[in-house]
Amino acid sequence: MQKQIIVLIGGPGTGKSTLINELVARGYCCYPEISRQVTLEAQQRGIDQLFLEQPLLFSEMLLQGRIKQYEDALEEPDNVVFIDRGIPDVVAYMDYIGDEYPAHFTKACEDIKYSKIFILPPWEEIYESDTERYENFEQAVTIQNHLVETYKKYGYDLIEVPKDTVDNRILYILDKI
Fold first, then answer.
1. What is the model's pTM?
2. Where in this chain does the record put each NadR/Ttd14 AAA domain (predicted)?
3. What is the DSSP string of 37-60?
4. In sequence order, what are the residues at sequence separation of 6 or more whose Cβ sits closer than 8 angstroms to the Cβ of residue 115?
């Protein structure tokens, strides 16, 4: 079986981390979303919201972290690796806030390709804000639209995961791979 590096995407609060955690519990190799880690490290240095205060620095850190995740996934012994968010997410978020970014951001999106992209739709009933997720639901929907546009721009066919129980969403994803 050929290595599959599969990414779960979607706007904030669509259930990506919940599904990644369940896939881990079922024994799958998974890489978590790294933006919370970057945000928490910045908060420990006294920067409340790095993405809001220094979006390019935040995005550069995410880009490098996601490139490393991809490279690490290639070295995993598992044939299937799941990742919570991919490299094009960085570009989508920068487009969302309207900031410019260096050419190496788009080059990374062009050069590094994932096997499959599963997108989780906005789901108001499960949406929650917290200290790292500052967007309201309407903003989450706008971000979702940027994600769809960005991933399609880089040639991906998006597989939408239906709103359902965690177990049924996992079964849907596993059935598609």
1. 0.90
2. 6-169
3. HHHHHHHHTT-S-HHHHSHHHHHH
4. 3, 4, 5, 6
